[in-house]
Design brief:
By secondary structure, the protein is mainly alpha-helical. The chain has three helices and no strands. The protein has a domain of about 55 residues. It comes from Mycolicibacterium komossense.
Length: about 100
């Protein structure tokens, strides 16, 4: 496989976008916590900030999806997952006395 500078750049951009998603997610959690605070009853500023962060988060995910479409080589590999119903069923088993 030949080294493609565009693919290498896509990997770097994806890493930066994933870091941005993580930072935005942390800030969004804090803003939502503030907006639900019973003492402040969530100021309009907190609610606007949370909405702005959600838009930023959606935009970062849109850019990540676009890179995956443009450069299929940078897509993460498939993961093996068990269906949720199977996991839930196996984790709770009745015990007999």
């Amino acid at each position: 496989m030949r080294d493609d500078p565009a693919v290498a750049q896509a990997f770097l951009l994806l890493a930066a976008l994933h870091e941005q998603v993580s930072e935005i997610s942390d800030k969004l959690l804090a803003a939502e916590r503030n907006s639900r605070n019973l003492r402040s009853r969530g100021t309009a500023h907190d609610q606007r900030r949370a909405a702005e962060l959600r838009r930023d988060l959606y935009e970062a995910h849109r850019l990540i999806d676009g890179l995956h479409r443009r450069f299929p080589e940078v897509r993460p590999g498939p993961t093996t997952r068990r269906p949720a119903a199977t996991v839930a069923h196996q984790s709770v088993r009745p015990t007999r006395a």
